[in-house]
Amino acid sequence: MNSTWLRPLLAWAACATGAGAGYGLGAWLGHPLWMAAAGASAVVILLGAYDVAHAYRFLRWLRGPRALELGDATGLWSEVFFRAERTLKSLEHELLQEREQRSQFLSAIEASPNGVLLLDESDQIEWCNRVSAEHFGLDVQRDILQRITNLVRMPAFVAYLQGGSWSEPVVVEGRDPASALSVLVRRYGQGRKIVLSMDITERQRGEAMRRDFVANVSHEIRTPLTVLAGFIETMENLPLTETERQRVLLLMRQQTDRMHVLVADLLTLAQLEGSPRPSLDQWHRLAALLQRIEADGCTLSAGRHTLVFPVDVPVEVAGVEAEILSAVGNLVNNAVRYTPTGGRIEVSWVVRNGGDALLEVRDNGIGIAREHLPRLTERFYRVDGSRSRETGGTGLGLAIVKHVMQRHGGELEVESEPGRGSCFRLVFPSARVRPVGGLNPAASVVDDTATAP
Ligand code: ADP
């Protein structure tokens, strides 16, 4: 039989038995009043014992682990047990939900690219995410409840935290002296603080580069402008002979040409930065590009050098034609400008076994000392400023070459030795090289002997 029915039946049976026993005892004593009183007392005692047993069970359940079941009961106790269990279950459910929400919230903060650190009223660490721990050199577990000012050795941060005026963020030096953090403190709750930190090293570097760039451009433009202003003044104030006038005009033209080239290079750089990545379906015959570059190189050299270009290059390159022309053209232009009269400039094309292709511009000119090599592609970096300017250089050529190659998924390699010459190498990835008219990328033109003249 079901225990839901069994228990009340047993309880009633016990009461009935008790009442019967009481009644029997009363009858034995021989008076009907005694019989009724003894029967009623027996029922009250039995019901009292039943209540005490259930109350004890309830107390034990309240004290015990939550997993313990209350079990069944009858009458009022059944209702009490049911409601107590239901209330507890709903509280546990709410607690679980809150825990879940809290852990999701903390995971979201944990995933933040910025540092988040919570301090109590005494500046003791309550919680911090990994980024914050990294910024301040903390241990996420070990340093909890430690006072932050005892752990963080950043005088500017400590002064800011203790200063109490947090309307603006403060920029402090990171753990690595070359890095910078922007830190902001906000108050919350009762005297608690949240410390937000952001790594702004790259941003500061970018701002410094922009400042340098503007200063360099201004300087580069001011120089020819000053020269031009001087010539204009001369022409206004001095009676010049026709020969002198022609000479001054020539010098003025040279200065305006210089500004022209500078502005053109600046525009090229700006375009490179703002354009989408070159597509892989615009193929250009390298032979045709090299012919145009050879013609320009010969004009610039004016017979002072021996220029050697590959005779036949049966290859196509994918990318932006004007950019590839500009990259190779800059290298040939430099080779001519930095190679003394009588020197040799050689352009060659090789497809490596891996499928990458190299376009090499080699000269036997003045060469470059090793310490300058890492900085050559910086904007306006020149090894010899006066030689660069004398030969019409802007200091932007190699920056353009590097940019073009990066956009095409390739790179620029340089080898050089002072007094012996230089070799500038453009490395094109295999996906951008194919045989003329071919369908597949360079896999089919792998041939280390492909071109060298
Ligand atoms: P520039 O307009 O001054 O030539 P680039 O960016 O083209 O600027 O080159 C940067 C510097 O690298 C040059 O100023 C020059 O000192 C050096 N350089 C570039 N190419 C050569 C080369 N072929 N031989 C020697 N030095 C070179």
Overview of the structural elements:
- This protein has 453 residues and is α+β, with helices and mostly antiparallel strands.
- The longest helix is centred in the middle third of the chain and has 37 residues, at 201-237.
- Strand 1 and strand 2 (125-128) form a beta hairpin.
- 52% of the residues lie in helices and 16% in strands.
- The protein has a five-stranded antiparallel beta sheet with strand order 2-1-5-4-3, with helices on both faces. The protein has a five-stranded mixed beta sheet with strand order 7-9-10-12-11, covered by helices on one side. Strands 6-8-13 form a three-stranded antiparallel beta sheet.
- The chain starts with a helix and ends in an 18-residue tail after the last strand.
Cα gyration radius (Å): 44 Å
Determine the fraction of residues in helical runs and give it as a percent range.
40-55%
Query: Could you give me the name of the CATH homologous superfamily of the largest domain?
Result: Histidine kinase-like ATPase, C-terminal domain
Gap from first CA to last CA: 104 Å
Average pLDDT value?
88
Structure annotation, total helices: 12
Strand content: 15-25%
Query: Helix and strand string, N-terminal first?
Result: HHHEEHHHEEEHHEHEEHEEHHEEE
Largest sheet, in brief, is: 5 strands, antiparallel
- Shape designation: elongated
Order of the strands making up the biggest sheet: 2-1-5-4-3
Structural class: alpha+beta
